[in-house]
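Working notes for the structural subgroup meeting. M.R. asked for a predicted model of this chain before we commit to crystallization trials. I am recording the input and output together here so anyone reviewing the notebook later can reproduce the run.

Input as submitted:
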Amino acid sequence: MILKDKICEKIDLLKNELVKIAKTIFQIAELSHQEFRSSKLLADFLQENGFSVERKIGGLETAFIATAGHGKPKIALLAEYDALPAIGHACGHNMIGTMSCGAAVGLKKAFQDLPFTLVVVGCPAEEHGAGKKELIKAGVFKDIDIAMMIHPASMSTGFDIAYAIRRFKIEFFGKSAHAAADPAKGINALDAMILLFSSIGLLRQQLPEKVRIHGIITNGGQSFNTIPEYTCAEIGLRALTIGEVNFLEQKLRNLVQGACNMTGCVSNITVEEEMPEVYVNVPLAKTLEENYKFVGEKIAARTYEQGVGSTDMGAVTQIVPAIHAYINITGDKIIPTHTKEFAEASNSEYGYNAMIRATKALALTVFDLVNNSNLLEQVKEYFINRRREF
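Returned structure, recorded in token form:
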């Protein structure tokens, strides 16, 4: 307990700097793949505190790796820092990178020469682009033993429920004609798109529970008085497993073909992005929850009814023992993410105090892993056994 208190004390000394970093990232509010100032702010903070920093990793301009210590285990804390269009940090990513960097620096200050390898991975483009998948392809996680991150929410827990998602670009190609003078000579790509969205709406009543199909039309035509020769949409399929997403995809493709048959258009379907579900490492999640209790944080069960999204952290949990945990930054209120109200919580005094508690719990969980070989083996064994199930 004395050593854990020491870690907490070091993080308390960092509090003002960490809050300043999180506030700055909140104000900058840089979008996916554009987080140049945000990633630099975090990477510079780590470098100034004794971490060796490599920037622009995996072919991503705003990704970085910061490393301290030596030997095994090699534990990664993941940082996110991208904002959403129009509503900024309405998912609290200004806190995610700050928590991981703060936990890492707190541990470094408490122990100086770390007898294990501590890595902070700067992960851009969670909101749009699945940056972690690109980092996986680049081999960033190939020698990582354990990965962790904490996400702001309206509950505090080590557990997660996340949809697998596959996002499509769907295009219809028709033939233009003057909408008043010669409409019969046209092939209407907008008609095909409207038929697709209508058929998706009708399909929903025949779908299994806990699946989602949703999208937007990104190009609805070229001119009101011209039969549209081209339309385009972005549509996402979500389910609790990637296998269910595969099942949904065939239904979507059938609907696209049906719209083509009815209008005479041709179509093109492109998979733009895919993120699998999160595999929660239960021993690791329980350890974080114990550390939440240690720092005075009240934990709550993670339920489907609280709302479920998707994350590219799911891809990391498929290859490394990992958790995508949550910290309550909204107090007694239940506030959905991706709203203006959640953005306000992400820049609130209560939220920043919760961020510091989470930073401590994250650091203490790393401490437990490197000082309890039985726990480390349990975490690894759980991951191996879970992988065998799928």
